[in-house]
Amino acid sequence: MDPSGGTPDESKTAVQLTASTSAEHGRQIFVSYSRSDRIAVDQLARDLRARHHELWMDVDERGIEPGEDWQEELVEQMNRSVAVVACVSPDFLRSKYCRAEIDQAQRENKPIYPAIVRRLDSGQSLADMNLGHLQYVDLTQAYPQG
Q1: Domains in the chain and their CATH numbers?
Q2: Phi, psi dihedrals of residue 87, rounded to the nearest 5°
């Protein structure tokens, strides 16, 4: 069994992830990630934006302004989004904030597109966030690990 707990497609890159999210073209996609993965996540975001996807990340030009209630803003932006790209890594799976974002997406029945951006630690899997049933894209070779 694959240690990630899902079904891999290691031949995919952002191009194929873009094809998967094409139904969401022109509508906001929420990017859920751990800050420790910013280098890879920023590259993925650039690639998806180059393919005309509208993304929301907490740290970009449309992100959270100083003085804003960041938890409230995350909930609001998740509500506005039609799908979620989950940038999965060991730190993502350990993050209570990432878990809260995925839990909200699942409660709202939003499509979730898992993208492995860093190899998972031994014993970790997508099932740790109730994502083990989803096809994922392995981007560990496509993007820098930082």
Answers
A1: 14-138 (3.40.50.10140)
A2: -90, 95
112: which residues sit within 8 A by CB, 6+ positions away? 83, 84, 86, 102, 105, 106, 131, 134
Sequence-distant (≥ 6) Cβ neighbours of residue 39 within 8 angstroms? 143, 144, 145, 146
Interatomic CA distance for residues 92 and 99, integer angstroms: 8
> Per-residue pLDDT tens for 33-47?
999 999 999 999 998
Overall residue count recorded for the chain in this entry:
146
How far from 113 is each of 29, 60, 70, 88, CA to CA, in Å? Answer: 10, 20, 23, 10
Name residues of the chain where pLDDT drops below 70: 1-26, 60-64, 145-146
Q: Find the distance separating the first CA and the last CA of the chain, reported in whole Å.
A: 28
Detail the DSSP E strand segments found in the chain: 28-32, 54-56, 83-88, 112-116, 137-138
Query: Which runs of E-coded beta strand occur in 33-82?
Result: 54-56
